[in-house]
Each structure stands twice: as C-alpha cells, then as structure tokens.
Amino acid sequence: MITLSNIHKTFNRGKASQVNAVNGVDLNIGDGEFVVIVGSNGSGKSTLLNLISGSTLPTSGTVALDNTDVTRLADYQRSKWIARVFQNPLSGTASELSILDNFRLAALRTKPKGLSIGVTDAFKLDVKDRIALLGLGLENKITQPIGTLSGGQRQALTLLMSVMDDCKILLLDEPTAALDPKSADIVMKTADQLSRDFKLTTILVTHNLKDAYSYGSRIIQMVEGKVIKDIDTKHKQALKQNDLFEWFG
Ligand SMILES: Nc1ncnc2c1ncn2[C@@H]1O[C@H](COP(=O)(O)OP(=O)(O)OP(=O)(O)O)[C@@H](O)[C@H]1O
C-alpha cells in the first residue's frame, strides 16, 4: 500500500542550518497494517508522515501509494488515498459550525469542486449512526457547535470524519498528545476501531510506548532520520510490553 524507496529529506540545504531530517528510508507497508513510529524528538517521524501525505516533497527517492508513483503529487492530489489527524484537536474541525455541518464538509473533502451535499434526513441518519459507534452519546448533539465539545470528543469526531470518504490510509501524528489520559484512551480506541472497521492502513506517530504496544501490529523506531528497528507483525506478537520499554525507554 505504501512504498518508500531511498527517501531523503534535507532542509536548508547548503546552509549552516542544514538538517538531514530523513536520511535514506526504505519502507514497505502492506494493506491493513497498523504501524507505530517511535523515536526521540527530532528523529524525523513527522517529516516521514509529511513525505507520505505530500505536505513535504522529498529531496530524493520515491513514494508510491497503492502501486501509483505519487512522489511529485501535492497533498491535495493524494487526499483520495489519505486521511490525516494532527496533535491539536482544533486543527481538523471548524469550531462555530455544528457537528453535522463539519461532517458535511468532511464528506466533500475529496469530491470535485462545486459539488454540494445537502443535509438530507438520510445524511443525518448516516452521521448519527457513525457517531453512535463511538459510544460517547454525541449522536444526540449533532446540531451543537463542535467547538463546545471537549478536546477528546472533538478528536474522536475528527477521526471519524477523516474516514468519511473511502480513504485507504490513516496518518495519525501524535493525536493524543494534547489530551488527558481518559480522552486519549477514547481517541486511541476509536482509531483502532476505525482502522479495523474500514480496513485502513494506519501509521501512528507517538511517544507513548504503551499505545505503541497495545495498538501497533508493527513498530518502527527512527533515529537521526533512519529506521533503526522494524519489529514486524510476527515479532510484535511475541513481544512483551517490557521488552519495548527496555529497548526504547
Ligand atoms: N520545515 C522545516 N524546516 C527546517 N527544519 C525542519 C523542518 N521540519 C523539520 N525540521 C527538522 O527536521 C528534524 C526532524 O524533525 P521532525 O519534526 O520530523 O522530528 P520528529 O521525530 O517528528 O520530532 P518530535 O518527536 O519532536 O515531533 C528536526 O531537526 C527538525 O528541526
């Protein structure tokens, strides 16, 4: 589903501030894998996600999604494959608009410009059914401005909205970093459930090793822009949580 071949990303090339943020990464991620990327600050995790999403283009190397070379495609041109959720719960939604209107906008994300989606009874029912899956009782609040919800509720809805339109890849960049433990738990469980229900290929960047252990089918460690450890599904299954803490702690 995702193939990175000898990817490099250098910022500020030729200047004193030059950084080799991603430094020769080869990675093959198969359909339906839940990959967790861990590594210390500045090791290149977010840059790697940006290279996959297209919000950053590589200095060299290639990116393929679903066997299509997308190396030179911008992020909006990759949006039919990719949904992305960031750290800040405010970044994925429009505060003043109702939950329902936010879902309407999300449904339009990858549709041709000029297309509109009316808030029909069928659409409302579909949104309510999807929200009910979260088990947070938010299906009865769909006319409420989304800005009135807690960060965790909002992030769970952002996740749900991000997979409204048949995308295949879900990129999660520290989606729980700004949340309290209970909200973080809800968001991670939602991500896991959506990933399974929609058979998504998911990549999570996190500093939380417990989440990495609980949710990852594969765990990758980055250091200085390189992948230095890649624990595949078979080895992950045999792994104890403590092993992970010893390696990365
Ligand atoms: N747009 C940019 N311009 C210049 N340098 C950048 C840019 N984006 C990232 N970098 C640098 O590239 C390196 C990798 O950054 P990146 O954000 O990918 O690391 P990270 O592993 O996600 O870190 P963190 O865990 O702190 O979020 C860092 O040294 C960072 O300062």
Automatic annotation (TrEMBL):
Q: Report the domain of life of the source organism.
A: Bacteria
Residue span, ABC transporter domain: 2-249
Q: Which Pfam families match?
A: ABC_tran
InterPro entries given in the database record: AAA+_ATPase, ABC_transporter-like_ATP-bd, ABC_transporter-like_CS, ABC_transpr_LolD-like, P-loop_NTPase
Q: Name one GO molecular function term.
A: ATP binding
Q: Which UniProt keywords apply?
A: ATP-binding, Nucleotide-binding
Q: Which PANTHER family match?
A: ABC TRANSPORTER DOMAIN-CONTAINING PROTEIN, IMPORT ATP-BINDING PROTEIN
What is the protein name for this chain?
A: ABC transporter ATP-binding protein
Organism field: Mucilaginibacter antarcticus
